[in-house]
Specification:
single chain, 255 residues, alpha/beta, 9-stranded mixed beta sheet, two-stranded antiparallel sheet, 13 strands, 22% helix
Amino acid sequence: MYKENIEQNPLQTDNTGMDYTRCCTLADCSHETSNEAQKIKNAKRGDISFFLIDNLEFMKQKPDNYYDLALVDPPYGIGQNWAKDKRAKFYKHRNNFNDNIPGEEYFKELFRVSKYQIIWGANYYWNYLRPSNNLIFWDKGKDAQKQFGSAGEIAWTNITKYPLVKVELMWNGCCVCEKTERVHPHQKPVKLYQWTLQNFAEKGWKILDTHGGSMSNAIACDIEGFQLDICENDEKYFNDGLQRFDLHKLQLKLF
C-alpha cells in the first residue's frame, strides 16, 4: 500500500461523485510504504476504479442502466474448505463471506444498474434468475469423479449471442492455464475474464464487478481496454487484489 501525499496526489472527484486518492501504480511509485491507518480506501488506475465498499450501498448510488454490463462472481453460499488452502497467503484470514448467497435486494439492484449481466455461479441463484439457455460453462479440465472439486462452473447471461457455450481453461491444482499467486480462495483466472469480454462485451462498454476478490476481472479489463468499477468489502482482499493489479502493471512496464 502507499502513503498518501496530499500535495502531489489530492483527492479528485469524477462524474459519479466518488472521491479517489490519486496515487501512482507500483510501476512508477516513489511513495513510502504506508501504515495501517493510511491505506487507501478507493483507488483509480487508468480506466479501472477500485472501491472498498459494500456493493449494495455502491449500486444504490447509481442511476438505472448506468453500466452496460455487470460481470460478477457472487458468493455461492457453500462455505469454504480452508484445508485445501494451507499454502495460500490468505489462509489465516478466515472470512465467512461464502456462507450465504446474496439476497433479493442485491439482484434487484444489479439488474437495475446494468443493461446486461453475466453472473457466475448461476446454479446457486436460480430463484433470482429467469430461465435461460444463454449459459457459459467453464470446463476446468478436472474429473470430478476422481478428483476433489467440481469439473467446472456455470454463468448465466441475458446476452442472447449464444445458447450454452463452453470455454476450456485448465484450473486443476498445479495444472493451471496461467501461473499466478493466489490471493483469494475463489480466484478465477484472468484468461477466463478475457475470454468472456472478448466474446460477450462490446468496445466502449462500461462494466461493473460487485465482488472484486482477487481482481482478476480488473486485470482482464485493463488488458482488453474496458472501463471498470470494481467493489470489494473485505479490506485484506481489497489490498491484496490491488497489489496484484499493480504488479500486473509493473510487469507490463518491465517487459
